Amino acid sequence: MHCPFCKHDDSRVVDSRSSEDGTSIRRRRQCPECGRRFTTVESAQLLVVKRSGATEPFSRDKVVGGVRKACQGRPVTEGQLAVLAQRVEDVLRAAGSAEIAAHEVGLAILVPLRELDEVAYLRFASVYRAFESLEDFEAEILMLRAERERA
């Protein structure tokens, strides 16, 4: 770790603490060259593997953007979308892998979206699962009704 003050290429960790949510580590460091202290925050990067094989960092903004289209005209707030994106990230991180297939991101979106708004869920699922006929919609609606009756 380079010192932000003198640019020395080494530093010593003086103290380490986990963040409140447990997703990052705060480290207090000291430069052996100039003696000044500074703080770094380290977090595990979650990578999404696209169909093409390319990887990119997981982005809550991309989740919100995709789901926002499905929620257009529905009574869903930006706050609810932010919570949904956080839930998706939590589920993906709980899987314990640093790389997640893009398909897994879509699957992780479906459950909280269904709980948030069933119409938005159907819209998203129809694109994500590539519905090709009315029968696909009917099957999904029957499944939603069966789940509602069980609850």
From TrEMBL:
Coiled coil: none annotated. Keywords: ATP-binding, DNA-binding, Metal-binding, Nucleotide-binding, Repressor, Transcription, Transcription regulation, Zinc, Zinc-finger. Pfam families: ATP-cone, Zn_ribbon_NrdR. A zinc finger (unnamed) spans 3-34. InterPro entries: ATP-cone_dom (IPR005144), NrdR-like_N (IPR055173), RNR_NrdR-like (IPR003796). One of its GO terms (molecular function) is ATP binding. PROSITE patterns: ATP_CONE. Transmembrane segments: none annotated. Binds 1 zinc ion. Residues 46-136 form the ATP-cone domain. Negatively regulates transcription of bacterial ribonucleotide reductase nrd genes and operons by binding to NrdR-boxes. This is Transcriptional repressor NrdR. The lineage of its organism: Bacteria, Bacillati, Actinomycetota, Actinomycetes, Catenulisporales. The gene is nrdR.
